[in-house]
Every structure is written in structure tokens, then in C-alpha cells.
Amino acid sequence: MGTIDVTPADRDAFLADARILAQTVRLESGCLFHSLAPDIAPDGSMVLAQRWQDQAALDRHMRLAGTVAFREKWLGRLMMDVAAYAVNSA
After folding, report:
1. Which residue from 30, 31, 32, 47 could staple onto 51, CB 3.0 to 4.6 Å apart?
2. Phi/psi at 65 (nearest 5 deg)?
3. H or E segment and range at residue 36
4. CATH of domain 2-82
5. Sign of the alpha-carbon dihedral angle for 39, 6, 17, 72
6. What is the pTM of this model?
7. Residues in Cβ contact with 58 at an 8 Å cutoff, skipping those fewer than 6 apart
């Protein structure tokens, strides 16, 4: 979970690419939840939330061609503050 910041000029293009990626991410084995939502602030901030069945599923996701291509296109054009959390319930 975390935040992603893009410039206001890149916001619409980023969201368009993110919508395309989200369609496939949500169908991936082990993806329990995936959401990227614009913050109400007009500055290009997004809130990212994902839930994966396990670390192996997340690792597979990060290696998929669509994920790699998205990251290669956007990582140099945004700022991310994303952290992974693991909570085990009894």
C-alpha cells in the first residue's frame, strides 16, 4: 500500500495506462485485490492498494511482461512511496 505521485501533466496518460494494466492484474493468479485511485488533491497523487495471496504471487506479478513494461515506462516519471505489509491472523 502506498502513494504514487505523477506530474499533473502526466496524470491522464498515467491513469490510462494504469487502467489497462489493472484489467490484467486483477485476473492474475494470487491477486486478491488491486486498486489505484486518484487522490482528491489535484496534484497527481494516487493511492495504491494491493492484496496478494502470498509473496510468490506478488513476485510473479512483478516479473510479468505487462508489469515490467509499465514500470519501465513510468518509474522515471513518478515518485513512489509504497510498502509491503504482512499480517497473519490466527
Report:
1. 32
2. -55, -40
3. strand 31-38
4. 3.30.70.100
5. negative
6. 0.85
7. 30, 50, 52, 84
